Amino acid sequence: MVMNHGADVNAQESDRQSSLHRAVQNGRFKAVKKLLEREAEVNTTRTAGITPLLDAARTNETDELLPLLMSYGVDINVTDTNGFNVLRCLTLCPDKEHVDLTRLLIEKGISPREVLVGAYESIHCAAKRERIDLVNFLLEHGANVNALGLNNQSPLYFVAQECENPAMLSTLLKRGANIDLKTNFGETALHALINAQRTIANQRWTGRTTSRMLSTIFFLT
Length: 221
What we know:
Elements: H1 19-25, H2 29-37, H3 52-56, H4 62-71, H5 86-90, H6 99-107, H7 122-128, H8 132-140, H9 155-162, H10 166-174, H11 189-199, H12 203-220
Keywords: ANK repeat, Repeat
Region (Disordered): 1-22
Pfam families: Ank_2, Ank_4
């Protein structure tokens, strides 16, 4: 590797990507470890203020990469220019729920509610991805089931737009989601469910799913 020949491990490309960013994004644990051992800047930022930690939270290898970066003194309180912290990014990780990592981050002082006003919180993203265990964990550790995101969308509304899992809807309702909350456009979760039925191509299958969701709402409210 070029790092073995005196190359600057902190050199950045035109888009401010560093070697550490690239290694993290590609899930290359050994390369990340070697770069850190060679004193690569662990808190370097690329476009949008994204650090290697925030990149790591979005990868399939986050279970290994996050603890490694944390062991090298990474700033876990960093946010990107959208106000997203590491926990918010972790909810977008593609492979699983990461309840244990979420627990570790919250124990280190990361708030599940830290986000710019008007943006989706961690609870929105976890619910949209139908991660029931993570949603319950977040709610048990300070997340607000009625948090308002973009256009005043609640997690319930956010889920109802596309989510095809009645269990996720049921979970939010059982945890106190307010069915009457309205978006900036005057719509409730019921409106979102009905609109979803109209817009998704497979009307017959979606209709059955929407009916189950509507039944869930009426049963729990």
